[in-house]
Amino acid sequence: MTRLAGRRILLTGATGGLGQALSRGLVAAGCAGLAVTDVDAPALEELGGELQDAGTDVRALSLDVRDPSAFAAVVDDVVAAWGGIDVLINHAGVLSPPARLHNTAFDDLARVMDVNLNGAFHGMQAVLPHMRATGSGVIINTGSVAGLTAWSHSTPYCVSKAAVIHLTRVAALEYATEGIRVNCVAPGAVHTAIHDELPDEALRSIADRHPIGRLGTPDEVVGAYVYLASDEASFVTGSVLTVDGGYTVP
Q: Which residues are catalytic?
């Protein structure tokens, strides 16, 4: 596949279940360069080694997205190596312990917002000067159906993802005339290692919330990112592409 031929891509949160599938999918789609980042250094090294065999110029870079200076340094390093960044995918994200709002610790709210929202903000601020200088670029933020619907016992996560969605829309409006497209992918529940520890009853309950009758797989979400990163989506900006098995339909 060559849908992403020539694209130089920076991806955060690359070592999770969906992040790994996304990394492999971007390489399979023919991107010229892929910089994968995460805070999990051993997993990042393993992923980088695996992807190197595919023929794409892969760089594995440690990054805590909560640190704006670290994010800017990674962007500067990638630009220096490749001459630019065509696509930023803000995928790093965390969950919080389940609790109703009155039992939610503020520290949990602050941590989730710092990674999910502020991390995306830092990434956008770091790449936008480079993209504006070239008059082109694509930014894809990872939202969630939790940002479009309300989940009980999940205040920090829902609020952070709703904020990411609106950040996407505002940025899309601000930079549309400069050739920069900003979109968001909102997955439903996708079966990754985080679900393996859940009892069957809990998994069934989650699956039943999706009209399609099951959880998604990471590979079923990857195509949305590839599409938005490609020229096929040249007239798409400010969109929230849901890949959710119908979760947001009812």
A: 157
